[in-house]
What does this fold into?
Amino acid sequence: MYLLKLRLHNFRNYRQLSFTPPKGVTVLMGENGAGKTNLLEAIHLCCLGKSHRTNNDRDMICVESETCAVHATVERELGINEVGVRIYQKQAQKKLIYVNGKIVPRIGEMIGYVSCVMFSPEDLDIVKGSPQGRRKYLDMLLSKCDRSYFYALQRYQQALKQRNALLKVVAKSGNAKQLDVWDEQLSQYSKPVIIKRRNAVEALSQLATKHYNNISGKNDEEFTLEYNCRINETDSPEEKLFELLKQSREDDIRRQSTTYGPHRDDMDMYLCGIDIKAFASQGQIRTATLALRLSEIDILSSIQGEKPILLLDDVLSELDEFRRVRLIQYMKDIQTIITCTDMEDLRGAKPECVLRVKNGIVG
It folds into this structure.
């Protein structure tokens, strides 16, 4: 998969831009705040219809503008596709998604046309941060390659929102019977989320040790992952969740939140059998993070039949020379776009194109 052209209109600090990267390694060099990360964000927006940096779409609209638009033209083995996103400042106007020139009714319809894997300094939080960050990582990985998961997660999150809202009502009215229908729906919608997450973690775990040892230069450290789900049933998790929701109903009403469900799950990580968060050095955490992203590339490549676009946002500067060289080796035969502030960070990268970014201008 290759990005042929990216067009921006009033996106972040770009009034107008037409960006045509080569199929190899492109370097975007500039000072902090120049707009380098904004370009990567725009590519990611065309992948999943949402930013990796903000939950508020209007944050991406240029100052004093009413709308912004991003269009990506990508080349795949089956042909050329175009994906676009238009966002409006006014809340009454919905975000528009375009696929090959036509407006599609749902964000999920754009999934699979553009595929990318983003490396950023914030990735360290996947390993050492809160469970919420690890759930988000799994959800984004699965959504990139499985449209049905994207819709299943949407249904679950909507049902969870409705149940939590009803818990507040029930806490005042005392009519707990109203929760029956949402307990049933939440349980039903949880099944594909739990099963697909569990399968994804198993796939990641099978790949992670290979990448970890390759980056670290060692061959004796086992990096494994486990899906930490309080619902242990592998075949019928929805039945177990329905039972747990009944058992926890009084506590849920008192707390006005839902105790059980995949929104509480986690992904545990172990290095040589020990919880990596408990003892790992900064270098080991960084290596584990890179191993996760490289495993993600393998999974997407296997499912989609072609490699995704690789986006590295000021990552190489954070690595020692050995890890930097190892990561650069993965850039062969894959379109890569790198941001940096200093060319010294890219020793050995052999870019085809180096572009200066300053105040929303690329050249």
About this structure: The chain has two domains: 1-115+308-363, 131-141+149-287. The longest strand covers residues 2-11.
